[in-house]
Design a protein that fits this description.
25% strand, alpha/beta, 224 residues, single chain
């Protein structure tokens, strides 16, 4: 009888815990539900009209998984920008035998500068403080992209808050017109994030069209 009551109690406790999580999800947890339901990481983020002749840029490479997935599908040339030493080392080792995946051990921003990056796994950012930080070199976004190729088929931007400065620079310099697809994750911890994202949407609409949008999760803009 005691075992039966214990099992019943555990089941009820489990149900209550799940209900509590649903009732008290954070705004970010609510945002990602539609994305996960659509299997966005396996669909939207990888489904592009690319080929072995395409050029792709990955801003914020982290451990290189997205680059690996894109390469395995299309065998294209990929330039990964990753400033955090331990992640760059991992990427270098991972693709050591692949000369079509090129590592750049720098950050990218709205202007060339030196900066400090707070290291916190996939949330490492130049806009946060963390117990572990590293000095990094920041390349001017438009200059770095033009140095790679006059046309970029796809750029992925996941740079923990620096995406606003990067996109504002690409639009101001006109380099945005040289990019076929812009896959970007906006972050809301940046000051005036909503206003800046809305402003960027209006400017991107002049050259690109929105193909999918999960606000502050992932979205993609395709050249018109």
């Amino acid at each position: 009888m005691r075992k039966f009551l214990r099992r019943a109690f555990d089941r009820v406790a489990g149900i209550m815990t799940r209900c509590g999580r649903l009732a008290y999800r954070s705004p970010m947890e609510n945002r990602v539900v539609p994305w996960f339901n659509a299997r966005g990481d396996q669909t939207f983020r990888l489904d592009y009209d690319l080929s072995s002749s395409s050029t792709v840029i990955d801003l914020g490479g982290y451990e290189g998984q997205w680059a690996s997935d894109i390469f395995s599908r299309y065998l294209c040339t990929i330039h990964i920008f990753e400033p955090v030493a331990e992640f760059a080392d991992l990427i270098e080792q991972r693709f050591a035998a692949n000369d079509r995946i090129i590592l750049h051990r720098t950050a990218v921003g709205g202007r060339e500068s030196a900066a400090s990056i707070g290291v916190n796994g996939d949330r490492s950012s130049m806009l946060i403080t963390a117990p572990d930080s590293q000095s990094v070199r920041v390349e001017h976004a438009s200059s770095a992209i033009q140095a790679i190729s006059p046309h970029i088929d796809l750029i992925k931007i996941n740079v923990e808050g620096a995406e606003y400065d990067i996109l504002e620079d690409l639009i101001a310099t006109g380099v945005v017109k040289q990019i076929g697809n812009i896959q970007v994750q906006f972050h809301d911890f940046v000051a005036n994030a909503e206003t800046r994202r809305t402003s960027l949407h209006a400017k991107l609409n002049a050259t690109h069209e929105l193909t999918y949008e999960f606000p502050f999760v992932w979205e993609n803009w395709r050249l018109k």
